[in-house]
C-alpha cells in the first residue's frame, strides 16, 4: 500500500558515508483506479514484483544498519527502473502476459503521480546521506516463461560504465561459493536506469545486485541473504578506500 500517497517508503536513518539500499521493484501494490486487466494471482508473479526483495531489504535496514528506499507501487503500474521515455515504463506486456489495462494508459499521469515523486525523494535522500556505497537490490526469476534456458546464477552483479564496486563484489560472493553472474542474466549496459541516474551520473559507487528468486522466497532465506549482502557490501566499501 502507498503510505501517505507516496510511491515509496524509507526504512532506517542513513549515516553519512555508510551503506544504503534502493529497491525499485519491492512492491506489487496496484492503487485503486488502475485496472490492469490481469488475473489477480499474477500480482504475486515476477512480472509484478521482485519476489523476496522487500523482505531482504527490510532485514538489511532493521538488522544490519543499511537503510532502504523502497518502492510502494508495482512495476506493472509504472516501472521505476526505466527511463521516463522508455517504451516499457508502463508495460503492456511482460513475459508473455498481456497487460490490457495499460494499453492506451495515461503514461504522463503515472509518471507525475508515482515515478517522479519516487525519484525526486531518492535524489534528496542520497544527497543527504552521501553514502559510500549504494546497493541497488533486485531479484530474477529462475526461468522465463518465454522459453529461455534455466538461469544457474545465484546472485549477479550488473553495471553499465562503472564496474569498480561490482568487481570486488563478484570476487567476494564467489569466495562464498556462490555461482555469480557478471552482467547476467541481463546486462546493466541496457538495464541500469536507476543507478545510471543516481549513482554513475554523480560518481557514486554502487552494487546492482540481483538474487535468484527461489533462494529468497522464505523469511529464513531472506535473513540469510540480508546478512550476506550486508557483509559483502561492507567489505566492498572498505576495499574502495
TrEMBL record:
Domain of life where this protein originates: Bacteria
InterPro entries according to UniProt: N-FG_amidohydro, UCP029730
Cross-referenced SUPFAM superfamilies: Zn-dependent exopeptidases (SSF53187)
Name listed for the protein in its UniProt record: N-formylglutamate amidohydrolase
